[in-house]
Amino acid sequence: MSAVTIQDLQIILTQPLNQRLIVVKLITSEPGLRGLGCATFTQRFHAVHALLEKHLKPLLIGRDVSRIEDIWQTMMVNGYWRNGPVVNNAISGVDMALWDIKGKMAKMPVYQLLGGKSREAAAVYVHANGDTISEVMDNAQQLLESGYRHLRLHMGGYGGKHPNLVHPDGVPSGAYYDPRAYVRNMLKMLETARDTLGDEVELLHDIHERLHPVDAMAFAKALEPVNLFFLEDALAPEDLDWFERIRAHTTTRLAMGELFVHPLEWRTLVERRLIDFIRMHISAIGGITPARNAAILAQAYGIRTAWHGPHDVSPVGHAANLHLDVWAPNFGIQEWCRFPDLVYEMFPGMPEVRNGYMYPNDQPGLGIEIDEALAAKYPCIDEVITWTQTRLPDGTPVRP
Ligand code: MG
């Protein structure tokens, strides 16, 4: 039997909501057989597009679609310099599409190829936000009433906004916040949440690397009575060595990883058992292939998964998250962002969420398609990103 090969690589750019989505479509030599993958790096989508179109497409045409591992390794080393979010996202688009194709050839969902289900559905957490504590509590209550049992609570965007920030004269425009106000306000909000929402609801919080390491450590320690399901991104990837200190001072559960783009970032944390949940953005680490490897590594060390699942993961990427979720014996929780009807229409086969659980369909491959005519009606819009132009009260530029 002759090999099924890659005949074409097409890139679908669409922006149904605020985020620019990049979906890779691989066309094979088998009539009608194609696969989809998520390559979404919303802030730098032109760079990913160019890498796919100009560098990976010529490398891939004619290759045997069955050789996912070979193709993944080849894509990673072909540019000599490796990793990084642009390279990894482009590789992910191809990697996920190859898993989708392999599933369709085997007539099995991708979770079957990984080893089969460990559970019927993945428990999800959703976001409850607001500008004040009472707004956050009202939104949390509504989500509990719609069946969710895990809530990530946040206040004032990513927090630290303050009505009375005093700036020196002449500061540039930007997204300003005060890390000290962040700690005071979030502590009050999370303590109120535990008191008003009760002990049974699972509460999560994301520091989004907004604190100095020593303040993150004090915050994690002060949160112990709130008994979080997890505290996310307490530190920036640049400050990973501080995890050892946080771990030594608190039993608050720690989740880390949506900004990771290199295996050494998670390998060290896992091997030293410094976190409880790995939560990479799967397209930003290169797709299903490295995520599977990271999940298996984490399992050996008693660490669970919690893949990143916001609106800047395309529905194809959410489907990939879910296939890993229902397979991984060490699944922890899945972040879910509640897409509107337009996105369900654009991506037939979207995972279904009922009563706080996300269910895969039993279609072969990733089980998700794209209505390209509808996607074309929502072209990507160029903009200069403002929310990442983050500054401290005195105007110092900092990580968002
Ligand atoms: Mg996060």
What is the first-to-last residue Cα distance?
A: 53 Å
Please give the CATH class of the largest domain.
Alpha Beta
H/E series: EEEHHHHEHEEHEHEHEHEHHEHEHEEHE
Shape: globular
CATH superfamily of the largest domain: Enolase-like C-terminal domain
> How many distinct domains?
2
Rg calc: 21 Å
Largest sheet: 10 strands, mixed
Residue share in helices?
Answer: 25-40%
Low-confidence stretches: none
State the helix count. 14
CATH architecture of the largest domain: Alpha-Beta Barrel
Structural class: alpha/beta
CATH structural fold name of the largest domain: TIM Barrel
What molecules are bound to this protein? magnesium ion
What is the topological layout?
Blueprint: E1 6-14, E2 21-28, E3 34-38, H1 45-60, H2 68-78, H3 85-106, H4 110-114, E4 122-128, H5 133-145, E5 150-153, E6 175-176, H6 179-197, E7 202-206, H7 213-222, E8 230-232, H8 243-249, E9 254-256, H9 263-271, E10 277-278, H10 282-285, H11 288-300, E11 304-305, H12 315-327, E12 334-335, H13 341-346, E13 352-354, E14 357-359, H14 372-376, E15 390-391
Parallel strand pairs: 4-5, 4-12, 5-7, 6-15, 7-8, 8-9, 9-10, 10-11
Antiparallel strand pairs: 1-2, 2-3, 4-14, 13-14
Helix pairs in contact: 1-3, 2-3, 5-6
The chain binds magnesium ion.
Magnesium ion binds at residues 206, 208, 232-233, 258.
Description of the structure:
The protein has 400 residues and is of the alpha/beta class. The chain folds into two domains: 104 residues, Enolase-like, domain 1 (2-Layer Sandwich); 253 residues, Alpha-Beta Barrel (TIM Barrel). 38% of the residues lie in helices and 15% in strands. The protein contains 14 helices and 15 strands. Strands 4, 5, 7, 8, 9, 10, 11, 12, 13 and 14 form a ten-stranded mixed beta sheet that branches. Strand 7, helix 7 and strand 8 form a beta-alpha-beta unit. Helix 2 runs antiparallel to helix 3. The longest helix has 22 residues. The protein binds magnesium ion. The site of magnesium ion has 5 residues, from loops.
